[in-house]
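USER: For my understanding, would you kindly supply a protein sequence with its structure tokens?

ASSISTANT:
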Amino acid sequence: MTEVKKPPQARGWTLPHARRRSRGWTALLTARPRLSLLVALVLTVLAVLAGSGVADRLGSGGWEDPDAQSTYATKALERAFPASQPNLLLLVDAGTASVDDPQVAAEADRLTARLAAEPGVVGVGSYWRADRASAAGLRAEDGHEALIAARITGDEKTMGETLDRIAPAYRGDHGPVTVKVGGMVAVRHEMQTIIQEDLTRAEMIALPITLILLVMVFGSAIAALLPLGIGIVAILGTNAVLSGLAEFTDVSIFAMNLTTALGLGLAIDYALFIVRRFREELAGHGDPLRAVATTLRTAGRTVLFSALTVAVSLAAMLVFPQYFLRSFAYAGIAVVLLAAAAALVLLPAALVLLGHRVDSLDLRRVLRRGRPAKAPGEEGTAWARAATLVMRRAPLFAVATTTVLIVLGLPFLGVKFGTADDRQLPASAESHVVQQHIRDGFPGSPGGGLEVLAEGRATSAQYAAYKARVERLPEVTRVEGPLVEGDTAYFTVQPRGEAVGDAAQRLVGDLRATEAPFTTKVTGTAAVLVDSKHAIAERLPWAAAFITIVTLLLVFLLTGSVLIPLQAVLLNALSLTAMFGAVVWVFQDGHLSGALGFTSPGSIETTLPVLMFCVAFGLSMDYGVFLLSRIKEEYDRTGDHAGAVRLGLQRTGGLITAAAVILAVVMVAIGTSRVTNTKMLGLGIALAVLMDAMVVRSLLVPAIMRLTGRATWWAPAPLRRFHTRFGLSEAEPGETRTSGSAGPAGQTTGSADTDGTAAGTTEERDPVNTGG
């Protein structure tokens, strides 16, 4: 008899010392399950206490580059000329009367004086107190509305507290006028309040629907509650982490949405994977302790690798200077690691205690009407048939799926980047109403001009000569100033067109290139946008390289293949095209704006595509690792490439789809937010997750793996040795290929495969081509 060729893991692909560490960790987790759960309960209670009120300590800005020229100029102007940077606007509406009516003017002047006396408010000015040149921009073209402008000082929290204190005294009717409160401080404060309200509503929507879906997946109410509990622990823990971080650095309140979404989504993903594997093992030999040990050695390792790949994608946002993006990295990394820790520590302890009771309260029994439930290992035959079909027509599926994904992404070629403003808020929000009135009814887009900070001693003649040069620039409509304070001065330059339009952005570059006998720095809405785009473009290659290199390394350690990591990165990126195309078509171009209830600003906030890419890419890798690890496990066990792909999809296809649907439900709940950026984030990632699970993992991955064949698993000898020493395998220790028997000339013949064909190990008959 010829010796049967040993499977890859028997040739050293799974390390003995790694097995010993795995067994030691398993014994540690399962020896005192009640103690583990008690400690977790105590830590969760502490997290609730530490994370309470976290939203009040978070900011609502963070889109600008803190090291940019525009940021420096803004802070310098705030110190030297507070009136140049108003963040509070009172819209005074005289009704049918004119703002020049004596009674209207008297009441408005009284309000201006009262506002100037408020603590924490500086730089108060108004149409009624301004000189002739400045007054024109503070009066509506129809003569019925005018503005009072001021600046609230302090950090975001202090400004919010000041606004809460003074706004009720000014909002509403005052004799002949009606006042509405607006300005950037009001926009951000209202945005913060709405996000907190919307997040609570999203949780109330997502939790019961998620529980129902989990019951449909598992059947057992007990099994369904386990993933939900893990998700809640991860969310509460991350809130505590964010609360701690807020004491040392700026953290955006938008990150709380990601905390909820990923906390529920990933914890449920990981728990689904572990509970499903536990039930398979329990059905096989009936010993809960042994089932937990096997589950941790196989599915547990996959969960750990999945968490690392998601964390890597989110960590890439740390290379960007905007604290809006960095906040999502803080929240994302924390929630991913906490979700994985809860799934790998708390869940095994609970499964040991539950044992066979994990299948208790089978709520699907009524629907089966006496038919026995399928054993976990018997599920997924439809996915096996689908995989066989796809692999038989692999070129067709590969080309057709790729073409569709590319076409869906084409609208992104027309993307226009902008800044987040009041149009993020619902149309009924007071601060949005004020800004919309200003856009529609006031000349010269008040607040949309560019400010040029001039530092250094200069004469009146030098200021005048510089002003004349600026007035000759092609995109300038008028120049005001200079206002001088010691060795510092500033000019206000009004651009043609919109405040952040192409003309305004070109003017920023022209102003920075204009010669002056003093140091100049340009700020304003368009300048902030230009600097933000530059910061992202400058660091984007570093972020992309970080994600790519670390992902390639992690997937190689998981599979030992050179080709699979490349496939994973490329297919993951391809799966995001539909998301980016939909973002532009819907949120920039305004399609479905009425149905979805938002106001399109005609652009996409600069940081949003980066955020959505990092989050969606990480989630795609999450599902990719689940599928590839099971395919690798089967290939190690049988050596049958096509059979491994088919069985891997059979065992994980339904699981991945269920996880994607549940995560999509959570993201859609987040997408019900009244804040446009949050709506875009939730609905966009929901689409990306569904496309990845239902199109890329179900159609494109098996098609591509069929086309690459057994070359999929190739690696040069040095890399094979590296993987042997440091790599990971999901194969059970000591397993050998049970499907092959010795054949002539050292060949092996396989046992019947699931589609009725033989699968060998050295001369393999391809079941995709030979039978069905």
